[in-house]
Structure formats: structure tokens, C-alpha cells
Design brief:
The chain has helices spanning about 1-15, 35-45, 90-100, 160-170, 170-175, 210-215, and strands at about 25-30, 50, 55-60, 65-70, 80-85, 105-110, 115-120, 125-135, 150-155, 180-185, 200-205, 220-230, 230-240, 245-250. The chain is α/β, with parallel strands linked by helices. The strands form two sheets. Strands 2-3-4-1-5-8-7-6 form an eight-stranded mixed β-sheet, with helices on one face. A six-stranded mixed β-sheet has the order 10-9-11-14-13-12.
Length: about 250
Amino acid sequence: MAENRASGNEEAEEAAEVYAEGVPCWVDAQLADVEAGKRFYGELFGWTFQDAYGSSVWALLEGDRVASLAPKIDGRMPTVWTVSFATPDAEALGRRITAAGGQVVMAPFPVGDLGVAALATDPGGAVFALWQPGRHRGFERRHEPGTFVWAELYTRDIAAANAFYGGLFHDALFGEGAEPDFGRADVTEVFPAEYPPHFLTHFRAADLEDALGAVQRLGGRVQAPPFETSYGRVAVVTDNQGASFALLQR
């Protein structure tokens, strides 16, 4: 019992910390039907849901915030999971992104008192978000089954991606003691050559085969069957609305 209490205290302390700049600190899905998303992910990961900012909802695992689902404001928008990188200053990071050859496609804007968000692309066109924390600091739980565990950038130029993100987020990726949750791979390793560069959110699965069976039972599909990587065994799937994500067993 003492060990359990100590572990719980450590998790609470970790959740209370502000994530360092360049660390993936949040993921959110933009969906046509949030209620359908709640049914899919609630069954798949054991999430429950709570009203968040505007019409979005928090996804909770045992009461801790692990992701969010939001309705698409325009039907022409893609149905996607978006990875947010932490920053203490979204405006300053946006200027650095532009100077390094990327673009800020949605300038920093306040999300109530939760924080400040922005949307950007790298030089290859992969979309990612920035999060400057306010009252909401990011994941309250990660690296566990049913939570975020990894973000992989599929790109056509790994060297250029390493230079871009290494310049922006050097300490998080390459600094002393860094344990990044962010890798880079050639897009053709998993996806057809015509796929654009993109980030793929990975959620941890306790049993990959069981999780794949659940995805299909719930109306999703398997895009790429299980394959081995340096960071674990992975399968790429889509939910019942077409949003791609990966399941990782390690």
C-alpha cells in the first residue's frame, strides 16, 4: 500500500509539472461526429468523457485527462489526430518556426484560461500544434495502456526534419538525459509514396492483437498490420470516421 501511495504521489507531481519546450504534451482529434468518437474510443481505450472548452470534450482515463475530441468547424477539414508540442511562448516559437522554413497557419490564440494554441507546418508540410499552458498543462497520464506514448513524423526528408526539429527543440530531442517521445521515419516505410508528410499519434496497447480486433469490431480498419520498430511493435489503424492513429505495444 505504501508503494502504491508513493507511486500515486509521483504521478500527481509529474502531472503538475509544465512540459519542457518540444515535448509532445497533448493530442486532440477533430471529428465530424464527437458522439460517435466517444463511443469508439470509450470502448477501445476505456475512456470516459467530460465537457471541456466550447464544444470539445476531455477524454479521461480513470479521471485523468489524456486527450480531447472536438467537432470539425468545417466539413472540408481533415478528420485527424493532431499532436501539440509544449512551449512557454507560442509567439516566439512561431517566429522561430517561420525563420527555419516552416509556416504558422493559425496564429497563437487563447483557449479561455486553459492556455494558448497555434497551428504550424514544418518545411515538408506536416501539420503540428503548439501549446502554451495556462490552467491546462497537458497530459495528466501518458505512456500507459490507453494513453499517448509516441509521435512519429512520416517525412520525405529525414535529414531536413532532424535539422528543423532539432533546431527548434534541441534539448527535448538531443539534450543530456532526453527521452523523446518523437521519432522520424521515411513516409514510404509504412504509407504509399503519394501520402503527404504527417504526424502519427501512437497510443499504447496492452495487447496489440486484442486492440486490433476491437478497432475492427467498432467499425475502424487496419491500415498497416503489425510491424517491428526500434520503439516497439506497431500497427496503424483508422477509427470509424477515418482518423488515423497507431497502436504500440512495448
